[in-house]
Each structure stands twice: as C-alpha cells, then as structure tokens.
Specification:
Length: 851
C-alpha cells in the first residue's frame, strides 16, 4: 500500500503540507498536545532525538510534547536538519477536522527562538555566487535585521570577512559548489571558497533566484523603497542577486516577509584590515586551538555585560577599520571612561540590566511573541534614565554624544510598567501577564473565574461531608474536563445522582449536573478572560513596535557603550596603554605583552597548577622602509612563537580601537595581517602538512602589500632540511624585494644559516630569544634581544621533554660528528634584482653560486 492510499482526512491534510516542503525537511504536525512526525521523518527524528518509534496503521510515527517543542527543534537544527511547523489554527471541536497551517520552516540560519541561539554570537545566513567579475555575497542576521552585501573582483578579499562571520547556513545557486570544486588546480581562490563552504550547511536554490534584476526588486519590496539610492547602491550592483536570494529564502521559511529589515549596507574590503582564514585560525582570534572560545583573543578582551555588546565586539574584531578617525574616537571614549573609574563601575551595573533589544524586536516583528519579550523591553527602559545620568557624569565630548544617541521613552516605559505583571510567563496561553488594575474589563472577567474556582473548592468540601468520602477530589484534565474522583474502597458510598464518566486503575470518575453546568461557566469565563488579555497584549506589542526605530537606535548606542566601557575595564585591570596610530610604516612597541597568554599565566587555574607567573614583556621595532624584517632565532620553547603572535595581536587590537598591552605603542596602519604558524593538514583534500604550509605561504607572498604585517614561524620545516632551508631563504628574499620598502615581517626560524642574510639585505635585522646556560641545562629568559642565536639548543630542549638519557647522549655524539664534518653547506647571498645587474661573489669559495 502506498503512503497516500486510503488516507484519513487528517493524513490527507498532512500530505498536502508535506508535498509543498523543500526536500529533506522534517514536518512537525500538531495533534492536540503533541507534534507528531510520520513515515521517514519519524524514523529520522527518533534516531536524532532518541524518541520512541511507534506505528499507526502500519506506518511509523513519533511525537514530541508541544510545550517542549523548542528544545527538540533546537537539537534537530544543531544536527543540520530543517524543520517545518504545521500548527493548529483553531481549537479542536468534536467531529470536525481541525484547520492546520504551515506557520514557519526553521533552518540553522533562520531560527529566531532564544533557546536555539547563542545570545553572544551573531547568527548569519549568507548567500554567495561567482562570475567572471568576481565574488558576490550578501549576509543577513534575521535575529537582529542586520543586512549587508559585498562584491570584489578578488575572492581573497572577501574570504576574510566571510570566515569571521562564520555563517550558520549558506545559500548557493544549484551546481555552484560542484563547479568550484571542479575548477582547475591553479584557480586557488575558487578552491579556497569551496573549502570555506564544504564544512558548512549549504542550501541550493535555482539560479534564477540570484539574478540581479530579480534580487533588486525583491530587496526593494522588502525594504519598502522605490529605489536603493538612499543606501548608496546602484540597481545593477551584482551582489543584489545574492541579497534577493536571502530575502526570498527568509520569506519562504518565515511564511511571511521579514519585517525587521530596515536598511542594506555595503561592505567594502578596502576599508577594513583583512585577516585571512589561516590567520584567524593561527592567531586564535575567535576560537582557541581547542575549538572553544576560552583561550581566544575574543574571550580575553570581552568585558561586555549585554548580549548585543558581545555580538558587536565580535563584528568589530572581524572587520577592523582603516579609518583613523573612527579608531581614535573609540580610543577617546575608553580614555573618558578610564578617567572616572567609580562612575564606570556604576555605568556597568546599569548596563547589566539591559536586555537583548535587537533580538526581542526581531522576534516581535516576525510574529514570535510572548510576555517575557515585552518584559525585556520594560526592564531596559527602566535603566535608560540611569544610564543617561551616568553618562552625564563623565567629563568628555564623546560620553555626551552617546548620551544624546539614547532615546528615553517615558510614555512607553510607564505603559509597560503599569500593564505588565512583575512575574511573566513564557507562553501567552498561560495568562496572568497583565497586571491587575490595568484593565477594568479584564478584572471583571478574572473575578468570575476566581469565583468559579472558589465554588469548586467549596463543592469538594461539601461533597466530602455529604458522602462521607474524605478522599473525594474534584479534579480537571484537558480530555475530560472537571470530574469527581472516588477511590475503589469508597465506591459503595457514591450517591445515586453521580454520573459515572470513566473507570481508572484506582477508582471511578463521576460528574453531576451541577458540575457540568459550572464547567461551562468556567470555560466561558476563562476563554473570555484569556481573549481579553491577549487583546491587551497585542495593543502593547503595537505600542512597542511603533517605537521600534528609536529602540533600535538606542540599542545600537548601548552596545557600543558596553564594548568600550568593557575595554576601559580591561585597560584598567591589565595596565593597557593608548596606542598612537598614523599613516606611517612603523611598528614601535615598548614592553609589549601577549593579551591572552598574560591572562592565562595569572589565572586561578595556572596558580593551582603552580604555573602562575608574570608575563615577560618585549620591545618591537619594525619599519617598512628601514627595519622591515625581523629574523628571530632561538630554541624551541624560548618564546619565539608567542612573541611574533603578540605583535600581530597588539596591532589588531590597536586597529579595532582598543587599548593595548604595552607600556607604549605607535603603529602605522596595517591593511592586512598574514600568519603562517603551527602545523596542520587537510587530509580531506589530500593535502599534507607541508602542502598546507606552502598554500598559506603562497597566499601571503601573492597578496601582501607594503602596508601589510606578516608573521612567519618555521617556514620549510615540513620537508627535507635543504629543501626547507632553500624555501625559507627565498621567501625572505622575496619579502625584501621592494626598492625602498616592503611588508613588515617577523620571521621565526631554526635555520641558523638565514642569519647570514643580514649582511646582504639592508632592511633585515637579526634578533634572538635569550637563554642562559647552566651545567649543560638552559633557562628560558623570554627576552628578545638584537643579534642571532649561536645555536638551537635542540638537545637541551629534548632533555626537558623527557627523552631517555641514552637517546640524549647518542644525539650529542651524532651532533658533534655532523658539526665536525661541516655537514651543512653555507648558502649564497640573495639574488640581486635583474635590472641592477650586480654580480655578487661569496667570500667562501665552497659556497654554491646560484646567481
């Protein structure tokens, strides 16, 4: 028998909805107090959720309680599944098929429920397409209404921001992902884009959804505008195709137009410092090497107290500006906050009471409404006068400007405070969220309900006395309504006017004519009371949404204040300095420290392990036109990697407007930060550790400019000694190739031979991490000093790692033999630039002549 033969009217209703859903979407079909899944959906859900699989007329089914649906749906979304909700559109009536409608389709990128989101993380849905003019992208956070688009002829310029966004779901034209994967090997950018997409949930849409003309019309209709000139966009902007695809997909999933989209902004890669995916990973910007937020730069600098502030911090860290005025504005407000530490503490206390206004508005505007959402608006509005007063106490222009950006809404605040109860339920159906005394009609209806419940309590008492059954109870269930329950031991005492309704394991259930009549009165009063309460709630929602623009603007200002006030607390706690930024090419850092490692060394966990200590600061001096390349040698564990990372992180912090862990700092703006550190492979694509290293190095050499900052750690170590040394040598030469300047570079290496380059490359300087020797042991000083290391101390480090003494002794013997045989051939000075036609001869006749 086929699935749809001999179907009941209810199952016909089910299949009518199911046929209209996207492929592989699980359908939750409301039946009374449960959402049911049928056929293959039931089998899939039972495995993912651990549900009991049952059968009905020989087809599998599984159910989840209606009241717990959000939790189960969250688990399905976390597993990368899409879920459609088909709900009852009217109360159930005996003998009549309940009307049911598809209310929304939930996917990982379009969910709005709070328990399915991380409050402190942005939640992006992203659409991508490529053509001969480049990469075109749009992204949307449906929970807040943030909507942006971007286009770039170079895919590499948009991959950094897309990686930082970390979208929950990608929308692509059908066949696009396969086309990128099949691109010729030399089209590395397309392969990088495919790599970005392949580990994320991708949803395909027909290609016509990405057409520019279609997208332009869809976006204009959704924003309610006649043209896009007010957003600085041409109707032929190629990223409007993906933007339209996003809106179409969101509309299909919401089963209505998204109502919280108010603007569309263009992202321009030329206006931000770019951090490619490898750098975001290598520097542990958003997640640590363990894959968690703990141990990341984001966690180290996050002192926000609001969810919106935490999400703004994430956005700022992913797109640092190149605008000196904006950077200095952020720095200045941090300074104003720092000057008044007591008032800063008061401001933080008020911000701690601010609720997540952007996401609350997003849910209210998109028909997800419950009393606690309005309670969040009310609680935030209570804090506005306090926050404005706290900002007025700071002596500074910027604090005043922020105070003026915050809109106090006293009438709305008074309305919500007078209308809403102190304790609010999570569901409208629970009632009792409108305060007593707010509405006379509601108070009248409630009094009827209260009186009826008192009557029931009195009925139970009188019936106990009349029958002599002390255990008699008047109870209620959704299925049977009100009834009188009598245990088996007392059935002989039941009076003749009791009407038996049901037999249970423990006894019998009865009704009386009087109880039946009272039940009708109670239901009528409760229905009217709840209906009146819901009408009042709808009016409150309308009042809030009438002020949505003012609330959104206030929320934006509060989020910025939260981030910058948090950075002021960070600077005070860890003694950060205000960096000086300009358009020059220098990086001058005095006593710089690693912002993450410093905190870890002083953490309670480190102290408990006996590993707590103070971080050893170090100076840095780079200039693209002078000391362009710092070549750093020294043993493993001495701190080379920590040092070069700290310079990159200090630079990044400075350019997002944060103060930095140093005694003093002066930076010329950096357009990109590149890093090649650590060892990893990409076995899914058949790439070895060395291949990954070479891919990342190629990306750096092909895309770095004279304004970039590069950190390189152990280039060439993934292959043979001579091959690796040759590659490292030529990479240094390439970075030094400019006539008068080049990208500022920190190059950590164990190849002692590279230190010879200082004689031949005028903008290269040798540095080393100092160690002290004592009885064939070494002590790590953690100081970076001028000059090359005299040797690598590899055997001493091996001893510290616990290698057997027999291995250590044998290694010493082999090393002495290799050194006495002069096994490593000296390498040549760099090849001169061809146009200068200079012939260089080494002083060492045994040196290979590669010129």
């Amino acid at each position: 028998m086929s699935k749809e033969s001999k179907l009941t009217p209810m199952m016909e209703q089910y299949f009518e909805v199911k046929r209209g859903l996207p492929r592989d979407t699980l359908l939750l079909f409301r039946l009374g107090d449960f959402f049911e899944l049928f056929y293959d959906d039931a089998v899939t859900a039972s495995k993912l959720l651990g549900l009991t699989l049952t059968k009905r007329q020989n087809y599998p089914m599984a159910g989840i309680p209606f009241h717990a649906a959000d939790n189960y749906v969250g688990k399905l979304l976390a597993a990368g599944r899409k879920v459609a909700i088909c709900d009852q559109a009217e109360p159930a009536k005996a003998g009549k098929l309940v009307k049911r409608v598809l209310t929304r389709i939930l996917s990982p990128g379009t969910t709005l429920a709070p328990n399915q989101l991380d409050a402190q993380r942005n939640h992006y849905l992203c659409a991508l397409t490529t053509d001969k003019t480049g990469l075109h992208a749009a992204w949307l956070d449906l929970t807040t209404g943030e909507f942006r688009l971007a286009t770039d002829v170079r895919i590499e310029n948009l991959l950094p921001v897309l990686t930082a966004l970390d979208p929950a779901e990608l929308i692509l034209p059908e066949g696009e992902l396969a086309r990128w994967e099949a691109a010729p090997h030399d089209q590395t950018a397309l392969h990088a884009l495919h790599g970005f997409c392949r580990d994320r949930l991708c949803t395909d849409l027909p290609a016509y959804n990405f057409e520019t003309a279609t997208g332009t019309k869809t976006v204009m209709d959704t924003l309610g505008v006649l043209n896009l000139e007010g957003f600085g966009l041409s109707p032929t902007h190629p990223a409007l195709g993906p933007a339209g695809a996003l809106v179409y997909y969101a509309t299909e999933n919401l089963c209505a137009k998204p109502e919280n989209l108010r603007s569309l902004q263009e992202y321009r890669s030329a206006q931000t410092l770019l951090l490619d995916p490898a750098t975001l990973r290598n520097l542990e910007i958003f997640t640590s090497s363990r894959g968690t937020r703990d141990g990341s730069l984001l966690a180290a600098i996050n002192r926000t107290t609001t969810a919106a502030g935490a999400r703004l911090l994430e956005r700022w860290l992913g797109a640092p500006p190149l605008d000196l005025e904006e950077i200095r504005r952020r720095q200045q407000l941090i300074g104003e906050f720092l000057a008044e530490p007591l008032r800063l503490g008061e401001l933080h206390a008020f911000l701690d009471q601010v609720r997540d206004i952007p996401r609350i508005l997003g849910r209210l505007q998109n028909r997800l409404r419950n009393p606690r959402e309005l309670g969040g608006i009310r609680d935030t509005l209570r804090q506005i006068p306090e926050i404005q007063a706290a900002l007025a106490a700071f002596e500074g222009r910027l604090a005043t400007e922020y105070r003026e950006r915050i809109t106090d809404l006293p009438e709305l605040r008074t309305l919500l405070q007078s209308a809403l109860a102190d304790e609010l339920p999570a569901d409208l159906a629970d009632g009792n969220y409108i305060r007593a005394g707010h509405d006379a009609e509601l108070d009248r209806l409630r009094s009827l309900t209260t009186g009826n419940k008192q009557w029931l309590a009195e009925l139970e008492r009188t019936e106990q006395e009349r029958t002599g059954i002390k255990s008699l109870k008047v109870r209620f269930t959704n299925n049977f309504g009100y009834y009188i329950e009598v245990t088996k031991a007392n059935l002989h005492l039941v009076p003749e006017d009791y009407i038996r309704r049901q037999t249970t394991v423990g006894g019998e259930r009865y009704v009386t004519e009087g109880l039946r009549q009272k039940e009708k009165e109670i239901f009528h009063a409760e229905e009217n009371s709840l209906a009146r309460e819901q009408d009042l709630f709808g009016a409150l929602v309308s009042a809030v949404l009438a002020e949505a623009d003012s609330l959104a603007g206030t929320a934006d200002a509060l989020a910025e204040i939260d981030v910058l006030a948090g950075w002021a607390e960070l600077a005070r706690e860890w003694d950060y300095c205000r960096p000086e930024l300009d358009d020059g090419d220098e990086i001058e850092i005095t006593e710089g420290r690693h912002p993450v490692v410093e905190q870890m060394l002083k953490s309670p966990e480190a102290a408990a392990r006996g590993a707590g200590s103070a971080f050893v600061p170090n100076d840095t001096g780079l200039a693209g036109s002078d000391a362009q390349i710092a070549l750093i040698t020294g043993p493993n564990m001495a701190g080379k990697s920590t040092y070069i990372r700290q310079v990159a992180l200090i630079t990044l912090l400075a350019q997002i407007g944060c103060w930095v862990p140093a005694k003093a700092c002066r930076l010329g703006l950096v357009d990109r930060i590149f890093s090649r550190v650590g060892a990893s492979d990409d076995l899914a694509r058949g790439n070895s550790t060395f291949m990954v290293e070479m891919n990342e190095t190629a990306n750096i050499l092909n895309n770095a400019t004279d304004r970039s900052l590069i950190i390189l750690d152990e280039i060439g170590r993934g292959t043979s000694t001579y091959d690796g040394l040759a590659i490292a040598w030529s990479v240094v030469e390439h970075l030094h190739r400019g006539e008068t300047a080049g990208p500022r570079t920190l190059f950590a290496t164990h190849y002692q031979e590279l230190t010879q380059l200082e004689k031949h490359l005028p903008r290269l300087r040798n540095f080393s991490v100092a160690v002290k020797e004592w009885n064939d042991d070494i002590v790590f000083v953690r100081r970076v000093v001028p000059g090359a290391a005299d040797r690598s101390y590899g055997i001493q480090v091996a001893r510290l790692a616990g290698l057997p003494l027999s291995v250590i002794d044998r290694a010493k013997t082999i090393l002495a033999k290799l050194e006495s045989d002069d096994a490593v051939v000296a390498l040549p000075p760099p090849t001169p630039r061809p146009k200068k036609k200079i012939s260089v001869k080494s002083d060492d006749d045994s040196q290979l002549n590669l010129l």
